[in-house]
């Protein structure tokens, strides 16, 4: 970007002026106070500079008595080959205007259209123009100011002027990224540590929850085992009842068999008893008959004896019978008549024989009766015993039947309870082999319940929290690993970018150093330009050394060298840097004020030779143009006439 013309309206000492500029060196000269520096200041303000050495407020730059000032730059946008400097504008000239108002309102115009400062900065940045960089526009006294700048500030100015800022920006961005990642890594590390502590807590709770789940599973298994143990117990009870019932049935069957046997025996014994009774009755009847016969015989014998005695007595007392005998004799007179003594005796003997025979029969009958009685008594005892046995069997049968009825009821109830227990157990789960007793299971359940009570505060949310924190921990761990990898990558990126920056800066300074030494050699001085603290971009700086009159090169500062020496060294450095500066427009104000004539001439020639072959425009403000030849430069003379700056001569 080259400035073809500057138009000033009510700016500082200018009421209205048009100042044309050309390619190469433009020398603005004139006496002090004529408005030379104001012209460069106007260019800087139009390019967007906000703060100036002349005034902190831009409104103070408005000409006294006026409310508004305008500075317009006519920029050259002619094609270079097939491309214009600013392709957006398809015209040879671009008008950039800045308007200043007394009320503090300022604005830019681009081809008579209002634009923002950002738009202007974006346009100038593409062209490499930075009005705030003193290596591009060095206002009055800035040559001295440059020497007091820190090495870091000098280096950054150089980077901005030559377009190497992106390298620094890349490094700083990478370092910033590294710092951010390191901070992120530290933050993630703290979060990871916190998450690990939290996870450890939840892991303990999760272990307790798992223990609780195991206990609950065990409890359910114990419930299932208890249910099937109850089934087994009831099955055992049912089996025992069935066995008891079977035994009772067997006993009942045995009783029935014994009863049938006893009834048979009893029937036989009844028959025998009845037979013996009949036999005894017969014997009894025979005894009665025998006793009657015996009585009759005995009576007969007694009567016969009596008759025989009476007969004797009768015969003895026939003349005076007593009344009883007389009576007897009357009653048995017939018999007595029929009987004789010998017949009575014979009868008595016969009856005695019969009596003996009857007594024998009676004895025999008595023996048989006794035998029958013994047998009857025996069979009676047997019959009684059989009846007792039968009664006992009946009693036992009744008891067994009662027991069977009770067992039937118990068995029915047991089967009902067994079915209920079976249904309940099936709800708990499939059948399992039970090797423990119900009591042992209940004891184990009580122990399990005690452990569960101790874990009552453990909720089901713990598993979700543990899984959540486990996931978070893994994510953080993965993120920490990723951040660590990013840090390593970024660290490598910082090293790479730092190396790139150091390489381009060192390469630049090596070339600038050669030109710097050449320029100083013409001024009979020595010096060196080098990179200081290049290992750290934050503290890296530009070291400028210079030595005059055979002295050893020392750092350029505001105290060691004289004013002319500082100016000569600074300008030598600026000239050495010129071929690398991006901006096509550059300016310097009164750089030669402290130089001796020889150095002033050397620097002016070097300036002309440096800019001559470059596509650049250089504005030099000097009190005198003596050292510049008119044929090599564009001379602009400024004078102040009655308080107004005017352009008197352009050659």
Give structural notes.
The protein has 651 residues and is α/β, with parallel strands linked by helices. It is 62% helix and 15% strand. It has twelve helices and 15 strands. It has helices at 36-46, 117-127, 142-148, 151-162, 165-316, 323-331, 333-338, 341-428, 438-454, 461-522, 563-577, 597-612, and strands at 2-11, 14-20, 24-29, 68-76, 93-101, 106-110, 113-115, 137-138, 525-532, 541-548, 554-555, 585-589, 617-622, 634-641, 644-650. The strands form three sheets. It has a six-stranded antiparallel beta sheet. It has a six-stranded mixed beta sheet with strand order 8-12-13-3-14-15. Strands 9-10-11 form a three-stranded antiparallel beta sheet. Helix 5 packs antiparallel against helix 8 (341-428), helix 5 runs antiparallel to helix 10 and helix 11 (563-577) runs parallel beside helix 12. It is rod-shaped. It starts with a strand and ends with a strand. The model has no long low-confidence stretch (mean pLDDT 85).
Concise summary:
With 651 residues, the protein is of the alpha/beta class. It contains 12 helices and 15 strands.
Give start-end ranges of low-pLDDT stretches. none
Please report which band the strand proportion falls in: under 5%, 5-15%, 15-25%, 25-35%, 35-45% or over 45%.
Answer: 5-15%
Mean pLDDT equals 85
Widest β-sheet, arrangement of strands: 2-1-4-5-6-7
Strand tally: 15
Please report the distance between the alpha carbons of the first and last residues.
22 Å
> What structural class do you assign from the helix and strand content?
alpha/beta
Return the string of H and E elements.
Answer: EEEHEEEEHEHHHHHHHHEEEHEHEEE
The percent range for helix content is 55-70%
The biggest sheet, with number of strands, parallel, antiparallel or mixed sense and barrel status, is: 6 strands, antiparallel
